[in-house]
Specification:
- Helix 2 packs across helix 5 and helix 5 packs antiparallel against helix 6.
- The strands form three sheets. A five-stranded mixed sheet has the order 2-3-8-7-6, with no helix packed on it. The protein has a four-stranded antiparallel sheet with strand order 1-9-4-5, with no helix packed on it. Strands 10-11 form a two-stranded antiparallel ribbon.
- It is an alpha+beta fold and about 250 residues long.
């Protein structure tokens, strides 16, 4: 279940204006909301790495690794079968004896889960091992390390995925990419009535937060921190920071 952007906006306004400290415009709120969502989303992966180093517990719903994996799973996605870019297909190897093929990365790509080679009839059949650029370049130069057509290797360069070795001609394989996508930027949309913004959830560009519903409190805290800096009221920032520390201590205790 997503977090209602209007609910968060109203709470942020109520807390920021409690002592007439300043007004946060919808435009400012949307900017703060996007940054807050990105911060929380990226923190999942650092926290997951940390909690995997410690022993969990027998209760599934209170095990932090399970909790974080559930939150991340909301963004898991699988691409359709992707064909290679003919302009980026080239011969590689010690004597240019086999092919490397290039594929475009999904525009909403954030982190890789896995890549599979797709057979034209049987579908996904083999996992493609991802290497860093240096290891990949070394591997494709040797017949002992470059893999085989049925178990290729790959490397990322910018937004292009390079796969080798592959068969040439009309046999260039398709691939299927399993990945974590980026969350959509939140957008509190409105119409102006009597010179005041009125929430309009039916607007074409309306977008709730995509984070798990349990993140509502964290979103409010982070947006208040950013808002406090914007309106130059560091009491707001400090209060929000204290709430954030309490939340972190509670999660890690």
């Amino acid at each position: 279940m997503a977090v209602s952007i209007d609910r968060v906006y109203q709470k942020v306004l109520a807390l920021a204006n409690k002592e007439q400290r300043g007004y946060i415009t919808p435009q400012e709120f949307n900017l703060f909301a996007d940054q807050a969502q990105i911060d929380i989303f990226e923190q999942y992966f650092y926290d997951l790495n940390q909690f995997k180093r410690v022993a969990g517990n027998d209760t599934y719903y209170s095990d932090m690794v399970n909790v974080l994996e559930e939150k991340i799973s909301l963004f898991e996605k699988t691409s359709g079968n992707q064909g290679p870019s003919a302009t980026n297909t080239k011969n590689v190897g010690t004597q240019d004896e086999f092919y490397e093929s290039s594929y475009s990365m999904p525009i909403d790509f954030y982190r890789l889960v896995g890549i599979k080679r797709v057979h034209p009839i049987r579908g996904p059949i083999s996992e493609i091992e991802k290497l860093n650029i240096m290891d990949y370049e070394r591997a494709i130069q040797s017949p002992l390390t470059r893999g085989a057509v049925n178990r290729p290797i790959c490397s990322f360069r910018g937004d292009i995925i390079h796969v080798a070795p592959v068969e040439g001609g009309g046999s260039m394989p398709n691939i299927k990419i399993e990945y974590i996508r980026k969350p959509f930027p939140p957008s509190w949309t409105y119409i102006v009535v009597n010179e005041k913004p009125l929430y309009n959830s039916s607007a074409a560009d309306h977008q709730d937060f995509e984070l798990h519903d349990s993140e509502q409190k964290n979103l409010v805290i982070k947006i208040l921190q950013l808002a406090g800096i914007s309106i130059k009221d560091y009491n707001v920032t400090q209060a929000a920071a204290q709430e954030e520390v309490k939340t972190i201590q509670q999660q890690k205790s």
